Amino acid sequence: MSQDILIIALLVIILVGFAVLLTALFMRRVGLQKMNRTIMKAEHNYQQQIAGLQTQLSAKVGMLENMVEKLTLSNQELNRLNEIKSKFMSVVAHDLRQPLSSIQGLTSVLMLDTTAAGGGIGDQAALNNILKATDNMNLLMSDLMDISMIDAGKFKMDFKEFDFNGLMGDVYALQQINAQKRGITVMLYDYPEPIMVWADRFRISQVLNNLLSNSIKFAPQGGRVEIRYYIEGVYVKAFVKDNGPGIKHADLVKVFEKFHQSDSLDKRQRKQGWGLGLAISSEIIRAHNGEIGAISSGLGQGAAFWFKIPVKQM
To answer: Top-level CATH class of 160-310?
Structure first.
């Protein structure tokens, strides 16, 4: 009897375990189905989001393509206008040189004739003013030619070896004449040893003449201009310092821009230039792998312009 009970108990335990197993399997299946539906729903939402993002991205790409096309057309138009401007400046500068040369020649002849005939001081002064005006126009024509070549990418350098000391002496002698006319004292501090450079002598002299003539031009009557140069590492560095009107701090980064003229200059000083010389000088120094800059403590404190170019390596 006890064995029958034991067998029945075992059977009950087996049946209960089997029922529990079936229940667990059923619940697991239900859970998997629920999880599967959740995953499918999430995947559906994800696909919808992806489709929405793709639509937005396509729209953005279309907008960007339209913008790029417009910018390309605008850039092409700007290049075309810039080319027209450069050609116009070049043609104007070239075509005006001939009549200016004729005016200068005729004025010089008239001055000689007036002097020989014992003409009045007024006549001489008028003819002298004509010569000054044509000189200024010739300088402007040269600057316009240089700017047009820079814009066209045709601004070439002729590199040769020369002594920087000799160039400094030549520029000083030339500008000393202008300084004496205005009562400006120009001091040149020579470097005691030769400084050989590999550069375009004409263009570097153009930079020096521009910096020195600007200092003389803006220095007050009876003012002082100093020129110093020395070796700094693998460079020769030149300074031109004056006691003129100075430069505002905000203008220090602008003085080398084309056609820039400081607001602090008076009308007379503004008429003496077109704001091209420093821009051309900057391009020349850049073409020599050098640097150029300006220093000033502010208005009324004078200014110093400097540049440096590599010395010739022995």
So the answer is: alpha beta
pTM, full prediction: 0.65
Taking the C-alpha atoms of 78, 80, 85 and 86 in order, what is their torsion angle to the nearest 10 degrees?
110
Instruction: Report pLDDT digits (tens) over 164-220.
Output: 999 999 999 989 988 888 889 999 998 888 999 999 999 999 999 999 998 998 888
pLDDT digit string (tens) for 146-173? 877 887 788 889 999 999 999 999 999 9
